Amino acid sequence: QVQLVQSGGGSVQAGGSLRLSCTASGGTFSSYTMGWFRQAPGNEREFVGCITRSSITYYAVSVKGRFTISRDNAKNTVYLQMNSLKAEDTAVYYCASVRVPGGSNWSGAYDYWGQGTQVTVSS
């Protein structure tokens, strides 16, 4: 059983930055693809990006160039660095893991999920 515990988030003004962390326990972190998703009120959960076990990253068009995903296998942690934040980035952000070699933008592919953390961007 893999457990994912998220930290970071909060409130920031438009144009600001935040970093989210997600620390895994109970599994072999280095073998997982780690994804980030977000869900705004009234919206479906949407893909933000992911990083494969080989540290290849994929991003949604809406965040590409502003968000960066990285991982530290020694710390069992994946990060989501969010820069140039916009009001439309406001959502609850979730990390998730799946034990496959490639990336996936489909939430149904992921086996384990973090508890979610609120990110609020004011304009």
What topology emerges from the helices and strands here?
Elements: E1 3-8, E2 10-13, E3 18-25, E4 33-39, E5 46-51, E6 57-59, E7 67-72, E8 77-82, E9 91-98, E10 112-113, E11 117-122
Parallel strand pairs: 2-11
Antiparallel strand pairs: 1-3, 3-8, 4-5, 4-9, 5-6, 7-8, 9-10, 9-11
Topology pattern, helix = H, strand = E: EEEEEEEEEEE
Spans where pLDDT lies below 50 across 5 or more residues: none
Number of strands: 11
Strand content: over 45%
Cα-based radius of gyration, to the nearest Å? 13 Å
In DSSP terms (H or I, runs of 4 or more residues), the helix count works out at 0
Shape: globular
The helix-and-strand class reads mainly beta
First-last Cα distance = 40 Å
Give the overall pLDDT as a whole number. 97
Biggest sheet overview: 7 strands, mixed
**Helix percent band:** under 10%
Short description:
With 123 residues, this protein is an all-beta fold. It contains no helices and 11 strands.
Structure in words:
With 123 residues, the protein is mainly β. It is 0% helix and 50% strand. The chain has strands spanning 3-8, 10-13, 18-25, 33-39, 46-51, 57-59, 67-72, 77-82, 91-98, 112-113, 117-122. The strands form two sheets. Strands 2, 4, 5, 6, 9, 10 and 11 form a seven-stranded mixed beta sheet that branches. The radius of gyration is 13 Å and the shape is globular. The termini are far apart. The mean pLDDT is 97.
